[in-house]
Amino acid sequence: MENKELENQVDRAAARLGEVQRAVSEVIVGQERLVESLLAALMCRGHVLLEGVPGLAKTLTVRTLSTVVGGSFQRLQFTPDLLPADVTGTQVFDPRTSEFVPHKGPIFANLILADEINRAPAKVQSALLEAMEERQVTIGETTDPLPEPFVVLATQNPIEQEGTYPLPEAQLDRFLFKVMVDYPSAEEERRVLEFHLAESFPKPRRVTDLDTLMELESVVRQVYLDERIRSYIVNLVAATRAPAEVGLGDLVPLIGFGASPRASIALALGTRAFALVRGRAYVTPEDVKELAPMVLRHRIVLTYEAEAEGVTVEEIVDRMLLAVEVP
Q1: Chain-centre distance of CA 172, in angstroms?
Q2: Is it true that domain 1-215 has CATH number 3.40.50.300?
Q3: What residues does each domain of the chain span?
Q4: What is the residue-averaged pLDDT of the chain?
Q5: 303 with 253: CB under 8 angstroms?
Q6: Of 233, 285, 226, 281, the residue nearest 261 (C-alpha)
Q7: Region 265-294 average pLDDT
Q8: Percentage with pLDDT > 70 across the chain
Q9: pTM of the predicted model, to two decimals?
Q10: What is the distance between the alpha carbons of residues 89 and 98, in angstroms, rounded to a whole number?
């Protein structure tokens, strides 16, 4: 593709994505990084895990985005007594035909908000895992494909551990990003207060549709990713498995398992999508550095020794970003 044609496509895509971001910001104060992450994941058809204390507008942001992009939306409140059939659907007896027919569950939507996903037991997580990876659901003997695109946006609360179930590593690996949602600044919190004190709270407005947004996937894959940056991504992910090779031998007893090749794929796709959201037709090493924590923090498994010493995944990722040579 000619550079001029690509630049024109990137400009048009960035303008469309800018409309979406502005429409979301009319309802959501701050959280620009969160909105960028969700948009990037949508264009990559990747799932996102959101972690933050209650009251930071995680659920509201996802609901607002679904309205703005015009996709079908379902919110699932995960609880310890939830059953797989409550998510995927079940077979219902039809007395007219004396046969069992599949009844589709709420998971058959474009955008799924899995609220407090770590409160559901293993059986529900297993059913959700098939949907996330295979993008299909099996009900009895019938297997149905899920709508395209299908994206799971899950939230979890890091404070309460009672009545929760740690997500399996295999499921965590299916999330493209894990985004940490932080407190707003004092000025942003003041604006939030003004919104709630106003007589009419702003409502989200639709500015595009998912079909139009999905057309940008082809533009994402045209964003230039230099060979040196590709090698940088691979070396960074490889360092999580063999830290001694980049001079971080002291991390060997702290890391139980490093990131899988899905991390390299997520970094390559994610940095391209982020570059497009920001109106660029190329990826920079700074994009990789900025995105690496979101891609790696849920894919590195720490040992008990690391937990005992109070070492966090973020600290390990920061050290690896300093140790791996930047192109």
Answers
A1: 10
A2: yes
A3: 1-215, 223-327
A4: 84
A5: yes
A6: 233
A7: 91
A8: 97
A9: 0.86
A10: 19
